[in-house]
Design goal:
4-stranded antiparallel sheet; 5% helix; 5-stranded antiparallel sheet; 9 strands; mainly beta; 91 residues
């Protein structure tokens, strides 16, 4: 589930809930992304480097970086994007 928290042309923040074992398959986009872990544990793969993030941790995903994540515990992320993700607004 995804909830848009705020959105301008230049910046978007979304809250995303993940079930235990969820997989965010690798992808890339033109947006800069900062991700903050609210709850749970996430294993991020960013351009081939794996980082394990827990509550209070964050990471920067540069534009066009190949990235994805798995969530072995279930959890919540706050993702911010610059510029806004048009594909999120289409849903």
């Amino acid at each position: 589930m995804c909830q848009i928290l705020s959105e301008l042309i230049q910046l978007m923040a979304v809250k995303i809930w993940f079930e235990k074992g969820a997989i965010g398959y690798n992808h890339a986009h033109r947006h800069s992304q900062v991700t903050y872990v609210v709850e749970g544990e996430f294993h991020f793969n960013i351009d081939g480097v794996t980082k394990i993030l827990k509550p209070g941790d964050s990471c920067l995903i540069p534009p066009f970086a190949d990235h994805g994540a798995t969530c072995p515990t279930g959890g919540i992320l706050i993702d911010t994007f610059s510029p806004a993700r048009e594909d999120f607004l289409e849903d």
